[in-house]
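Schema walk-through. Below, the input block comes first and the output block second. Nothing else is stored per chain. Lengths vary across the set, and this one has 399 residues.
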Amino acid sequence: MENMNIAQVYKAAEVLREVARHPKLIGPTQLSDSSEVYLKPENLQRTGSFKLRGAYFKISQLSDEERSRGVIACSAGNHAQGVALAAAQAGIKATICLPAGAPISKVEATKALGAEVVMVPGVYDDAYQRALELQKEKGLTLVHPFDDPLVIAGQGTIGLEIIEEMPDVEAVVVPVGGGGLISGVAFAIKTLKPEVKVYGVQAEGAPSMVHALADGKREALDRVSTIADGIAVKEPGENTFDLCSSYVDEVVTVSDDEVAAAILTLIEQQKLVAEGAGAVSVAAVMFNKVPVKGKKVVCVVSGGNIDVTSLNRVITRGLVKNGRDCTVTVLLSDKPGQLSKVCSVIGDLGANILSVEHKRNSKNTDINGCKLHIDMETRNHEHIDIIRRGLEEAGFTVE
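--- output ---
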């Protein structure tokens, strides 16, 4: 990456001035009791994610010959839309390889922007291999989603905007998949203000950069599995690994449950819809995965292209993680009035019962006993403990 320099990032900023949105920081928020947390909402970017920045800058620098042949890209969905939009505005043909598991909303949005979509069985890395094959067959120019200096420079414009708007920022938290976003942001920020900490966040089910940095070399994971599909990458890039090794202070992981809780919190508190990959930065701060106590922090919310059907499941999971939805099983004797008493205890303690399933003759109960499975809305985990104790004090056994 010896050809990476801050002038390139400033050049990208100039190219993107009239193309990309420049969403202002939101905050301070109530996302943490111990830090002053702001959000850089790239989910409000055109095409719904930061990916437009790098894709557009890369395509803007192509030669006339490269433009005439067209471009190809591989993506989990967001880079696809960035490339499709940039190519359409430049009058260039774009072919996009998408993994078969990409959200339907991202697939349809890419098609709507005029790109030719090739669906590939498997995950992002399988789509990448197919893109390389088509590149050779048709002589296309590859617009890599993260391991390209021009793409990285485009993403680095986010770092410039953060420093310009908040010169006294102390830490920036960034989602990490292949590493293009954090490479650009960290390079820009550390070049201008080396004292600012830059932390990366990956999903527990796709910790490729975490492993690479720990072992000092790039490694490919056998598999990835996470609701954060936008960062489900098996192997980091060569350029991004070098840049992260040099400019990133630490990369941590968050669980899918923590990501779901962050998505829910962003919806409720900030009225922002983030996809899993976009919310990992917020999850890391909410659940104290990064050392930012007492600091002025910016979390980059990198994208908001979450499929509506997935959003419903994620919200439910987030409610459970935050103690807002709880299912308890109560063992009791099968005689009149028992169900009424259980419901009365729960109601008096302020929970809202959503459903009750009454089971007799279970092999795990007494012959004259039964089980109640009760799903209810609660306030938090402390509230759940109060309800459990209340049921036990009323003489019921909570399984």
